[in-house]
Amino acid sequence: MELEPHSRRNVATRSSVVSEKGGQKGYIVYGDRWLILSSCCFLALSNAMQWFSYVTLTDQMDAFYCGKTECRAAFMTNQIFQAVAVITGLGGMYITDYFGIWISVILGTSLNFFGSLIRLASSLPQMEESSRQYVLHSGSVMVACAQAFFLVLPSKIAELWFPDNQRSIANVLSFVANPAGVALATLVPSFIFQTQQQYSSKTWKIFYYNLGMSGLALFPFILCFFIRRSTPPTPASASSAHHSNPHSFFTQIWMSLSNTQFVVQMLLFAFSFAGLWGFMAIVTDILLLQGYDLQGYPTALCAIIGSITSILAGCLADRTKKFKEIIRFCSIGFALSALTIRIYLRHMNSSWYDPVVIFVLCSLLGAFSIPQFPIGVELGVETTYPVQEATSSGILVLFGQLWMFVIYAIFEYGKLVKWFYTFKADSTPANWQFVLDIWCALNISAAILSVLFLNPVYGRVELEKSALMPANLILQTVGVDLTGRRSRRNTTDYETGTIAAKVEPN
Q1: What is the homologous superfamily of the domain 252-468 according to CATH?
Q2: Which residues contact 59 (CB under 8 A, 6 or more apart)?
Q3: N or C: which end of the chain has fewer CB within 10 A?
């Protein structure tokens, strides 16, 4: 069998060659897929940790980077990541779809690693205080540019390298790396920085903290050099074998946006994404006002529990293909959890079990919200098929990021509105009860939207059902052992059956 050479432009999409052996047509799944997925996962983990690394260290960062002036270094770092993700989003979508996974991974890991080194240099105590903040933000811009790649890579990797019964879990593993990074960023500082100590512009602790994050960024950067190609020699599934879209990049964007069901999914994805992280951005001040001193632990627990439930949801989606049912269930669960925590936060902390209840409710928010990210992306690809995966998933992520800005603006304005509730004007959360009322209303709207209007057609699943009709179709799984030989398994039942394995030399 001869493979067509890959050109630079279509290296990410040309996978139409199907292997034939003994008259039987089939698809091959390569062990290399886990290496590619791992590089994307660790890239997402490292990047998310750098994004949220200073969220719980506002005073320490201001003391180190600003000295006696007021510069809000931690806040500006957070805003840089959000803004850059939106600005560079289209570029990441285009490069991933038209130049391939390999180029996208190289660019993402390089920007992430070298940007972390610039941030590390900014934390040297010997650097002039007047220059530190500019160096920090320069590095943060470079690190933030990596988001344009790893946020759209999961669906592309899942489509080209994974069989149809592993695509959802591949998406999930990539997406849960992001909240896992958030959890690390909120937990690790509590072990390094003492809350009662005096903050100094000469401390080495920030340098050591950034050094650890640079070390984490180095790992996916090294992994990417072991990736040899953007597409497997032989497709992993029927959809990747038949996937060819002759339309231009902007035509595909228009095709997605003109799909009513995809627009519904954009709204649901944005509500779940911005609804969770928007709440987590304001809840710390609310908890402090109500007598809770929980630091960043509610956010960390939310991310951890959400990661676990996402893996379970991914396994369920792979086995049943019930994408819309999972989204509906999670939307309703998130709305109910939001209403419960809204009501409970009206009461001051007065007993040992009050913090426990807050932890449980924050865990439920993560459990119902975070699974909607990877499953929502998978559903978006199904709905817009044969639009390129990075394009459809990129639109969802980009709209979610834009909605984050809208949510922040609504929350900031809502705090100042003197409606319904009395509050201290000089308190940080101000009219927080009205803000949470708006938040709950948006979540209830999302639940209603999912129940009444979410009813997409699974274009990719339908294609693969028709492709799997012939009885002679087989799936071959190729893995690489330590001796350098490839182990090949023939599977007659594409979903589950395994008959035999034999080792073939390369």
Answers
A1: MFS general substrate transporter like domains (1.20.1250.20)
A2: 199
A3: C
